[in-house]
Amino acid sequence: MIEVGMKFKFSNFFGREKNSNQPLTPWEQAQKKRHKKILKKNKLAKNRMGNKLPKLSKQRNLFLRRRMLINLLFFGCITLISLYFILPISKVKEIKVTGVDQVTQEAIKNVSGIRTNDYMMQVYLRKKESSNLIKKNISEVRNARFILSNRTVNIRISKETIVGYLLKSDNYYALNSAGNVSTVKHTSPEGNLPVFSNFKNSTETKLLAKQMNKLSSSVLTGISEIHATPDSVNPERIKVYMNDGNEIIATLSTFARKMQYYSQIKAKASGKIRIDFEVGAYSTELK
């Protein structure tokens, strides 16, 4: 179109066509060069545009595919999550506790905060909180491990060392080695451990637990009962009943240290004796 137009202008301007043998004027030569430059420029522009179009089209298609894939993944995940929470598989069907007695198992279930029909995901996210609640309220528990499988919550218990049982209102509560008292009621003490009576506050129970920790296992299991019997002279006075029938009067804060002499004193006695460890160590026969 440009070339024809240019030719038309030349013809109109001069009123005739120049033949190939007739030399061009300087002005015509300049116009011819200009015309060639315009043709070359248009050709280059056309080539550049032609090269860009396939690339732009490819990039646009790639962008659309990526966007569609992201949307599919997003809405697919939303659909699967919604479906999971609707189906029964998402909820707790059974709670099991292992590692402790039946009474403690029920107490652990109650304080854990986990109930049947709770969402399994919710239980998973609250594992640490539930474990801390159990350890705080149940002194028999050192650690609580949660295993979730097939709609079942398994709580595996590692037991704390128990040094004896506190007697309160005809119920027995475990006292662990740290001096913490359990909230779990027992109708009788578990195992061959001593029973503690008349200990009123946490200061006394922690001191009691500290002394029990210092005893050998043979001496500890040889104790039947320990009663707090404070008086005006000795507020830490205790009375101890042994399984062998002997009795001991002692001061709580020095009890473990004095008990290392118990076997020697017992060996010298011919019958049942009462040993007084409050001041020194001496024994008298029981009547």
TrEMBL record:
Keyword match Transmembrane helix: yes
Q: In what residue span(s) does the Cell division protein FtsQ/DivIB C-terminal domain sit?
A: 170-269
UniProt entry keywords in alphabetical sequence: Cell cycle, Cell division, Cell membrane, Membrane, Transmembrane, Transmembrane helix
Q: Which InterPro entries did the record assign?
A: Cell_div_FtsQ/DivIB_C, DivIB, FtsQ_DivIB
Cell division among keywords: yes
Q: Which gene encodes it?
A: divIB
| Entry similarity comment | Belongs to the FtsQ/DivIB family. DivIB subfamily.
Q: What is this protein called?
A: Cell division protein DivIB
State the membrane topology: Single-pass type II membrane protein
Where located?
Cell membrane
| Described function | Cell division protein that may be involved in stabilizing or promoting the assembly of the division complex.
- Species annotation: Liquorilactobacillus hordei DSM 19519
Which cellular component appears as one GO term in the record? cell division site
